[in-house]
Amino acid sequence: RRVEAIGNQLSGSSIPAIHKVAPSGPRVAGKVVIVTGANSVLGIGRASAHQFAEHGARAVYLCDYDDSNLEAHKREINSLWPKVDVHTRKFDAADEKAVKEVVDDALARYGRLDVFFANAGIVGPHAVFTDIDADDFMNVLRVNSLSVFLAAKHAAPAMQKTSADKPKPSGSIIATASVAGLRSNAGSTPYSASKAAVVSMAQTVAYQLAGTGVRVNALCPGLIETGMTAVVFDAARARGTDGKIGQLNPLKRAGHADEIARVALFLGSDESSYVNGQAWAVDGGLSAGHPYVR
Ligand code: NAD
């Protein structure tokens, strides 16, 4: 009888339809996306540009102050997903004029900006804090934190103008922070400070954008094998100790750029329409508890 009742419920017309927040089909269909820090071959930026292109973006901007690989990345995306417009920009993510220019270009060409993935970053000096120069400290803050402030400052108003085909704008600003910005760690003081600033900024900006339809989230990777960390992995391989990397992680390994890119895709898509002002740790569980050794 219970089985029958459930069957009746399922086929009955009294069951309200699920309120679908995102259309079926390509996950970022028609969206115009800016990705910074996109040059690195192993990097999170390039992997994310692939995710956005694969899942239906109309245009992807590949931006980086090092443009040595940008044209090659563009050709690759063009060959894999020919319908996507790819633009490359040599640009310093902490230069306000450059940030404004790329946002203005998106608005001029497409009349919209949907996703700004502020991902460019550098790692600070790995020295005891007493040995770090003030200039080096400020440089890390400039690249890692000021860049996110500028991205939000210029992307948010542009996203609010993105209302041609939508009742409300649905912009998403994603800033790459780090688990180093969430917890203390033995790494670099300027780096941790710069990433904590990104987390706090994402939360504050999310509140200040209340009611505008623009969401802001910080993405906090754990240890990922990219251009930034290649030196760690290469040295460990040379020593034969690479098997030890990630041993304290519950998943017993470091992460891949694509594993961060897939979360960036989710945060940039309307599927995450109720995710706002959050710091998303994507670290295999490392920051969930106290690492232990068995
Ligand atoms: P990566 O070095 O492979 O890529 C970083 C990219 O940023 C490079 O292409 C670099 O040229 C670019 N860049 C640096 N300064 C710039 C500037 N001023 N303007 C424009 N572009 C600039 O490293 P990644 O790991 O892919 O780094 C992406 C983001 O992820 C960074 O913000 C980094 O701090 C963060 N992150 C990385 C890890 C990790 O383990 N790899 C962990 C946590 C957070």
Written overview of the protein:
By secondary structure, the protein is α/β, with parallel strands linked by helices. Helix content is 40%, strand content 14%. The strands form 2 sheets. Strands 3-2-1-4-5-6-9 form a 7-stranded parallel β-sheet, sandwiched between helices. A two-stranded parallel sheet has the order 7-8. The protein is globular, with a radius of gyration of 21 Å. The protein starts with a helix and ends in a 12-residue tail after the last strand. The mean pLDDT is 92. It binds nicotinamide-adenine-dinucleotide (NAD). The site of nicotinamide-adenine-dinucleotide (NAD) has 28 residues, from helix 2. Nicotinamide-adenine-dinucleotide (NAD) binds next to helix 2. One of its GO terms (molecular function) is oxidoreductase activity.
Which labels suit this protein?
single chain, 294 residues, alpha/beta, seven-stranded parallel beta sheet, two-stranded parallel ribbon, 8 helices, binds nicotinamide-adenine-dinucleotide
